[in-house]
Amino acid sequence: MQSTARIPDDFGYGEEQALLRREAKKLLESSCKTEDVRRWTETPAGFDEGLWARAAEAGWLGLVVPAAHGGSEMSMTSLAVLMEEMGRVLVPLPFVGTLFATLVLREAASEDEKARWLPQIAEGKVRAAVGAEERRGGWDFAHVEATARREGERILLSGEKELVVDAPSAKLLLVTATEPEGPSLFALPAASPGVTVSADQLVDATRRSGAVRFENVVVSDADRIGAKGEAVSILGRVMPRMWTALAAEMVGGADRLLGMTTEYAKIRQQFGRPIGAFQAVKFPLVDLLARIELSRSLVYRAAAAIDHAPAQAEKLARMAKAHASDTYTFAAAKAVQLHGGIGFTWECDVQLYFKRAQWSRAALGDAAHHRKRIAEMVLEG
Amino acid sequence: MDPTRDTAEKRDLRERARAFFQENRPSDPGFKLPQTFLEVESEAQFLWLKAWQKQVYGAGLLGVEWPTAYGGKGLPSGSQRVVAEEMGRAGVPFIVNRIGLDWAGPTILAVGTEEQKQRYLRNILSCDEVWCQGFSEPGAGSDLASLRTSAVRQGDHYIVNGHKVWTTQALWADFMILLARTDPSAPKHAGISYFLFPMKSKGVSVRPLVKMTGEGGFNQVLFEDALVPASCLLAGEGDGWRLAVMTLAFERGASEGSATGGALAAGGEVARLVALAKEVSRDGRPASEDPVMRDRIAELAIEEEALLASALRARVPGLVEERPLALPFLGKLVSTEFGQRVAAVGQELEGPLAQYAFGAERAAGGGHFQRAYMNSFGFTIGGGTSEIQRNLVGERILGLPKST
């Protein structure tokens, strides 16, 4: 089957996606203005429960949840649409962590575990996070120092996960720990005795993450997600979706920066002219536009591959993340530079996006990290 | 339109094209073929390429999107791109009558009279008549509207005087799409007319130019009291600027009906880099094992995939609705600059071997990238420089104020 699978000419983009985009735009433009974002990010939780509830009502939390478990299970193309729109307004919701966990559960959890968690996730009652990276791992999921030690029927988990996105507000944590067979994934309620989550100070104020420590936390075989030693392979199957989702979010953010900076360049006068008339300003904006358009093409191509031609998914998704990382970084730098002095200030919204770009680039592998794998596929593949 | 039928049609076309190019791959002509249609310099090359185009057209693989009434196949938009992709995959020689197919043809198709369409279009596809483009002048490059070649009406004829430059294939062409000033008193954009000009007219002389690669292909064309029938005017007198903008849009890949498939469909350059990386050495090991070179190649592989994905995305209305013209307008800029970067990295990969000239016996990969790099400037300059493209995109797509 897979050998004949092809990416459809329309990228799997139809009326369903157009409707989702319209509704997302409407909801986000009215309930997530920049002043709201600023206000929420100054609170300890970092987000607004009211907006979370509206996201759940809109079906966003069930977007990747199978219908049998109360979700709508839409395509990766749909998820890309939603992420792109969220990225435009810098929505400060613990969405990424829950999305990551949902994908892992959907991919590998037992029917019991799925039935236990997925309906609650879709309803917005349970927020979740995935702890798969450690201090010395450098984006390598196979580097797992945390251990899962068997004691009769009990399994004792000990270790520490770093920079676990959305961990501070998560009720459910999925963490990796090594068994004799290799790293496995375990579902761990955040309230379990022995679990501590400390909030990180992130470069991006609109995101939250935390270090998750667990010491002799008791779980059972039923809490393992997938088979023993399968964590790296499960995560590997999920990652193309995560890379593409983040890339889509970055494209949305970069596009918003382009819009803000272009508008500013039309209004801001210097030497008796709007600065956008100067080629020194115009040309970098055009280069930014070009990069955004290319990133966006890769995002939707990767999304369509995930949905229709899985054999091509990993390469295209890595390409999308790598390209979008560079694009968002470039967008942020140019936006600050072209806004001039004001762009360097706290009050200018550009800085919020600038920091989101910094966070996004470093999350789930930066451009160089992905290019290294892409080089292997291109040169050895 | 039923998209599933569309897809089956394209699949069928792709299979047909793949089979044709596999079975009819031309054998080595025994002389060096040029790299692109811009470098055709000898009559032997030209005649060989002309025969090749005729064969491809004969197989029903050219002008597939043009109406059947004018020799096309009337297939849906995007079909020619399928053929172009298969040509790229098969690595067969290029189609020589590019200016006819992509620039003159679509313009005639858009605004020509029925008589003009019948007269010219079929011969463009079959390569019985080859076209060149007389837009640029020594004093009017990217500022095209300042052109000075004149056409003065006298009865049923115009008398043309002037000087064109960078005229690709003028040496071989049967016709030229010619811009000339018919009203010197009108504002500079208003006094220009667009002619379908027979190159074999009296008073026309062609002088070849030699590029820095040492190759020909470009020419200067001089008009000294050259007489041309008034019936050769395309649309009305004074319509030239509007039509030129249309032709340039086709040239820049904004065309959906492009007969050869458009600039963005280009591919296979990164595969060439990969092959070279395995052939040459750095620090005594294959360059393909050098981490820095690997990163450069990966970067370009991503870019190539992004260009391909963009060409495809441009056809999905829902995915371009916010800026429907951005991708077509960016096409020339991004693809030509990509080509230039690939060629630069190709030479970098070669390390010390990059010192060899194209065609040198000891050159790696035949010195392809040495020549390609030099030639790449033809694309970033010709048809509106990258700088002009950036102005155009900045003003038309981003809505920025005009540059002074």
UniProtKB/TrEMBL annotation, chain A:
Q: Which UniProt keywords apply?
A: FAD, Flavoprotein, Oxidoreductase
* Residue stretches spanning the membrane: none
Q: Which cofactor does it need?
A: FAD
Query: In what residue span(s) does the Acyl-CoA dehydrogenase/oxidase C-terminal domain sit?
Result: 245-378
The record places domain Acyl-CoA dehydrogenase/oxidase N-terminal at 15-125
Highest taxon, organism lineage: Bacteria
Q: Which residues form the Acyl-CoA oxidase/dehydrogenase middle domain?
A: 132-217
Tell me the Pfam families matching this sequence: Acyl-CoA_dh_1, Acyl-CoA_dh_M, Acyl-CoA_dh_N
Q: Which family does it belong to?
A: Belongs to the acyl-CoA dehydrogenase family.
Q: Spell out the protein name for this chain.
A: Acyl-CoA/acyl-ACP dehydrogenase
Source organism (scientific name) = Polyangium mundeleinium
TrEMBL record, chain B:
Flavoprotein as UniProt keyword: yes
> Which Pfam families is this protein grouped with?
Acyl-CoA_dh_1, Acyl-CoA_dh_M, Acyl-CoA_dh_N
Q: Which PANTHER family match?
A: ACYL-COA DEHYDROGENASE (PTHR43292), ACYL-COA DEHYDROGENASE FADE34 (PTHR43292:SF4)
What name goes with this protein? Acyl-CoA dehydrogenase family protein
Specify the Acyl-CoA dehydrogenase/oxidase N-terminal domain's residue ranges.
7-126
Query: Where does this protein come from, organism-wise?
Result: Polyangium mundeleinium
Glycosyltransferase among the record's keywords? Answer: no
Question: Record's family?
Answer: Belongs to the acyl-CoA dehydrogenase family.
